[in-house]
Each structure stands twice: as structure tokens, then as C-alpha cells.
Amino acid sequence: PDILILVDYVEFNFRLGKIAKLLNIPVLFYVSPQIWAWGPKRISRIETSVDKIASIFPFEPELYKSTTINVNYVGNPLTEILPSSLSIEQAREKLKIPTNRKVIGILPGSRISELKKHLPILKKTIINLYKTDIKLIFLVAGVSNHSVKDLLSSWVDNLSQNGMNVKVIYNNTYQIIAASNVVAVASGTATLETALIGSPMVVFYKTSSFSFFILKKIVKVKYISLVNILLKRKTVTELIQKNANPRALTDSLINLLNSQKQQNNQLRDFEEIKEILGKKSASQSVANIVLDMMN
After folding, report:
1. Exposed, middle or buried: residue 12 (CB in 10 Å: 0-12, 13-18, 19+)?
2. What pLDDT shows up at residue 162?
3. SS3 state at 222
4. Largest CA distance in the chain
5. Among 25, 191, 214, 229, which residue's beta carbon has the most beta carbons within 10 A?
6. Residue ranges of the chain with pLDDT lower than 50?
7. Which residues contact 158 (CB under 8 A, 6 or more apart)?
8. What's residue 244's pLDDT?
9. Residue 41: per-residue pLDDT
10. Nearest-angstrom CA–CA distance, 35 and 178
11. What 3-state class would DSSP assign to 141?
């Protein structure tokens, strides 16, 4: 090939990139390995595997200044993918949700391992919230995967049988976010999606005790959500591991739902995130880099 473009699958792609470089094939890594989270130990491996990195976060090029790797911030693809304008009224109309009811969005994660950890917490949280307001509507984002559907269908059936208005909607996460007054979001890309769409949120995450022990040893960031990482300060509540429990999540969601000030503060900070990310077209920028590397 004239060029090798690597995306994700870091360990496998490092090996592939190293071979390509030995064969004098230019190597572009699209989306930087998260050295800001994992620390600088990976940099030496990146240098032997990659010629250029197209990064999607503006703070990343600075992290590579002491290396020989050419890193360009190309813009964040979410700014292109997300709907340019999606109002709460439009989203609720499409999802057939009443405009006069309070809605809590639930983004539990997409991997089975995440769901098995998160769904029991979310079930108790929904029950707690329902006790405070029986008119609440809960919209749960799901992916069309047989294993995920099986897990979510039995979970939601149990809640619905007890009178709670819980709807699982598949492959329509952006509409769910836009239709919600507040959102409970499992940490990941979904936190940034929620911020860019403009819905107040509480972030949570729980993993196995062993995984958390290992992560504490190697992860170097102060925050877990991309929102707080980009802003370099805490604007959204993060409930991690033992703090990701039904009582804490219930209290955080109620506080946010009932506080226009908290909601407005988050929405103001989300506008700052849009400014930080800028308006570059990631797809066009990467295409330009590829053409330059091939010439």
C-alpha cells in the first residue's frame, strides 16, 4: 500500500505499524492512543510504529512535543456527526413522549460487562426516583445486539410490571439525550455526546474490583469523564466504583433535576467545550493529511 491508516486496536496496530515502517510505508494513526490517561510509557512504542497522528482532542499535540512524532489536531468527529440542532420538543415529538412530563435519560453503556455492573444499580435508582415522582419517564438507550436486548428486556419488564414508565429505545441515543431533562451517563464517549447535544448529566461507572485496582495504578487523569477532562475542572458529577451506588446516583439526579442553576452552569460549560473543540472538519482534515503523506 501507499499508506497505512490505523484506527483504534492499539496493541495490534502498534505491531502492524512497526512492520509497515520497516517496509518504508507511511503510517498514520487516526485518533491518538490515550497517553493522557495511561501515562507516557507508550510513547516509545508509538514512535517506532507511527509517522503521524491525527488527534481528536486539542490538548493532545502538546503531549507529544518531546517526541519525533508529528501530531495534528484534526477536529473532533462528533462535531460533524451530531445533529446541528435538536430541540427537546423535536426529540420528544419523534419519540412520542409528552412535553409536560419530566424525563430522565439513562445511558448504561453498550458492552455486556458494563451492563451487568450497571443495570442493578440503575434498577434501584429508578425505583428510588419513581418514589419521589410517579410521573417521571425513563428513557434507556440500547444497542441492537441480541445479548444486549435479552439483558435489557428482562430488566425493563420487571420495572414496568411495578408501574414504572421505563422505555428502552434502540439505536436512537441522540434523540434520547435531547428529549431528557437530565441524563445518567456511563463514562465514555457518551459523556461528550451528551454535552454537545446540550443535556445536563450525572456520570457514573463501575467495573470489577480487580480492574479498578489495576486502573488506579496506571490511569493518570484526575477526572474520568471527557467533559471534565476537556474543561480541566469538575462541572459534572462523577460517581465511580463504590460511589456509583443507587443512593448517590438518585440524590445526584434529583439535585440536578430540581436545580435550574446547576443545569444552567452545566449548559454554559458545554458551550465552552464546543469552543475548545472548534469547528474543524475531522474527515476533511484527515483526508488532507493522507494526501500529503502519499505525495
Report:
1. exposed
2. 85
3. coil
4. 65
5. 191
6. none
7. 123
8. 96
9. 65
10. 32
11. strand
In the chain, the amino acid numbered 157 is: D
**Per-residue model confidence (pLDDT) at position 201:** 98
Q: What residue has cell string 509497515?
A: 20
| Sheet of strand 137-142, all strands in order from the earlier edge strand to the far edge | 165-170, 137-142, 103-107, 182-186, 201-205, 237-240
Three-state DSSP state, 52: strand
Cell of 39: 501515562
Segment (H or E) for 72: strand 70-73
Q: Where are the beta strands (DSSP E) in 25-69?
A: 27-30, 52-55
Helix extents (H) in 108-145: 112-132
Burial of residue 17 (number of CB atoms within 10 Å: 0-12, 13-18, 19+) = buried
Main-chain phi, psi angles of 168, to 5 degrees = -95, 125
Measured CA to CA, the distance from residue 37 to residue 224 in angstroms comes to 9
C-alpha cell at 201: 448529566
